[in-house]
Amino acid sequence: GENVEQHPSTLSVQEGDSAVIKCTYSDSASNYFPWYKQELGKGPQLIIDIRSNVGEKKDQRIAVTLNKTAKHFSLHITETQPEDSAVYFCAAKGGNTPLVFGKGTRLSVIA
Amino acid sequence: NAGVTQTPKFRVLKTGQSMTLLCAQDMNHEYMYWYRQDPGMGLRLIHYSVGEGTTAKGEVPDGYNVSRLKKQNFLLGLESAAPSQTSVYFCASATGGTSYEQYFGPGTRLTVT
């Protein structure tokens, strides 16, 4: 089955700097790659996703890139703000199989 | 529109006791999921359902049972709780089809002593 590895497990950045979180997946049939943000005491919430026919997608300060050949995808957050502090999860899915999540990255934005 | 709700929010059980966690969604979603979240382990899928009356096993199904008698509800049962089942449990729902976005509930924190 699918296996998703996520790095780093923790990340601290200064406010205004960029943050990058990377994930790799094992199943070449996977074609959907979402990123979820989990704030303290809440359930995860989708912030951006990308499908395998697209190499990059942007939404304001966040972007996701996908390299299907290398089987990795990344989340980029620019101009980080304190409210970006949270746990971020990547995930991968292919066909009729359920989403498989990475282990998460705890991002701290230091003011 | 409440989205996905979970009952209860907190629970403490003794080893061997049983309980049922209730998940309800008011978005008419076909798909529903139960996950557990443990420190450093991410979100692991316990069971899921692709429609009323259907259930399927996820990555970590042992020790849990589920039922989806009504489209809007997905129940997770622990027949004989063990300390290893201490975790935060999240329910999620999704439209299905080509829309894969999952909407998560607020979670249930379960402690088994």
Output mean pLDDT of chain B.
96
- Tell me roughly what share of residues is in helical segments of chain A: under 10%
Please state the overall shape of chain B, judged from the principal axes of the Cα atoms.
globular
Name the shape of chain A in a single word. globular
Computed over alpha carbons, the radius of gyration of chain A is 13 Å
C-alpha termini separation of chain A: 41 Å
> Whole-Å distance between the termini of chain B?
36 Å
Regarding quaternary structure, what we see is heterodimer
Question: What is the chain-wise order of helices and strands of chain A?
Answer: EEEEEEEEEEE
Number of helices of chain B: 0
Query: What is the helical fraction of chain B, as a range of percent?
Result: under 10%
Structure classification of chain B: mainly beta
Q: What number is the mean pLDDT of chain A?
A: 96
Given as residue ranges, the uncertain stretches of chain B (5+ residues, pLDDT < 50) are none
Proportion of β residues of chain B?
Answer: over 45%
Number of strands of chain A: 11
Strand tally of chain B: 11
Unreliable sequence segments of chain A? none
Strand content of chain A: over 45%
Structural class of chain A: mainly beta
Description:
- The complex is a heterodimer of chains A (111) and B (113).
- Chain A contains no helices and eleven strands.
- By secondary structure, chain A is mostly beta strands.
- In chain A, the strands form two sheets. In chain A, strands 2, 4, 5, 9, 10 and 11 form a six-stranded mixed β-sheet that branches. In chain A, strands 1-3-8-7-6 form a five-stranded antiparallel β-sheet, with no helix packed on it.
- Chain A is 0% helix and 55% strand.
- Chain B is mainly beta.
- In chain B, 0% of the residues lie in helices and 51% in strands.
- Chain B contains no helices and eleven strands.
- Chain B has strands spanning 4-7, 10-13, 19-25, 31-38, 42-49, 56-57, 64-67, 73-78, 87-94, 103-104, 108-112.
- In chain B, the strands form two sheets. In chain B, strands 2, 4, 5, 6, 9, 10 and 11 form a seven-stranded mixed β-sheet that branches. A four-stranded antiparallel β-sheet of chain B has the order 1-3-8-7, with no helix packed on it.
- Classes of the chains: A mainly beta (111), B mainly beta (113).
- At the A-B interface, strand 5 and strand 10 of A face strand 5 of B.
